User: Fold these one by one.
Assistant:
Number 1:
Amino acid sequence: DIQMTQSPSSLSASVGDRVTITCRASESIRTYLNWFQQKPGKAPKLLIYAASHLQGGVPSRFSGSGSETDFTLTISSLQPEDFATYYCQQSYSTFHFTFGPGTKVEIK
Amino acid sequence: QVQLQESGPGLVKPSQTLSLTCNVSGDSVSGGSYFWSWLRQPAGKGLEWIGRIYAGGSTKYNPSLESRVTMSVDTSNNQFSLRLTSVTAADTAVYYCAREVEDIVVVPGAVGPYRWFDPWGQGTRVTVSS
């Protein structure tokens, strides 16, 4: 199984801050990495696919980068609606997709 | 606009079978470059992929659940289903259905099509308890 880790597990930030979340894979997944946002009581929402491609309708303040084992999700200017939990997910091993444990972004 | 909606019992007794259905609107389960997946999330925890089914009936399951999982697709009613046998308290979770998109993305180093989950159903909470 490809194991996914994320750091930090949680962070506190203010509106307008630049936020960076890191995701690491236990082996190379090239750029087969997706990012999701989940708000309490809601289903996850796709933000980024193929490591850096913004899903339609997602604000441009979200961006993704990385390849092989190290990836980042960046929010350039945090907005009130961005407070949520963020998950990375590898799609390299199509026999067994796996997710990171999540990063909770809270209001400072 | 594609929408998915899960349905099924919210309470299942230990050792019994959990059965859920996902109704799809705005798209056909029998067409396109899509797979249809189930995922789950225990309260306060992360996400786990359970498996997928293609319109033709081919399936792939999470190895950790494979012995207990069966998925099926009903093209006449545009829905797909999940059965999980011999449930325990560890199977208590919110269960989501999702469309698994497969597409070509022109990226240096790509070794095949990319896949992602979009959209998701709203989720249905299932508790395993006597």
Number 2:
Amino acid sequence: AQSVTQLDSQVPVFEEAPVELRCNYSSSVSVYLFWYVQYPNQGLQLLLKYLSGSTLVKGINGFEAEFNKSQTSFHLRKPSVHISDTAEYFCAVNDKLFGNEKLTFGTGTRLTIIP
Amino acid sequence: GAVVSQHPSRVICKSGTSVKIECRSLDFQATTMFWYRQFPKKSLMLMATSNEGSKATYEQGVEKDKFLINHASLTLSTLTVTSAHPEDSSFYICSARIPGGAADTQYFGPGTRLTVL
């Protein structure tokens, strides 16, 4: 079964500093990878996704992520964070099996931006 | 485009009553919808996959008779929590999948917070 590990449950960062949120997955097959953001009491919004092609993926709000197959990682980065980036971030994976529509989510990382 | 709504956004009910939560795809037809449960400070747990016109597929450990799912049309799926108890209090989120797409075409609703007294 798929699993997704987000090692950091909480990450405090000063405003305008860079941030990296880590995500590792376990899979022996090709995968689709996603990062979602959840603001308080809201649903999930897709930040970015990796399906194939370039390993560096750019998303909304200035975020980007790099797929590293050898390290089975998909870390999320932003060069300069803003107060509005305070939220919960979830990494998710779907393996490329026919008929498998399920997403497996990590436990989430709470990003807190310090003014 | 690709907007998913949920109703209600919040609901408080007494123990023993049933609660229905609606998930609607507003601008597309969704043959498949998913229901998730999120505990405080925890990740999303897939409860079931809802397919239009057929029975839902429940994940292991999810009680089918407790969490009734109906997907009667291409734009509406409902989750009914029957005989709710305080331990059912949670944040329930649905997502809808655009037909013919892969996992990347799941769009999430804003969630419903259920509190059972």
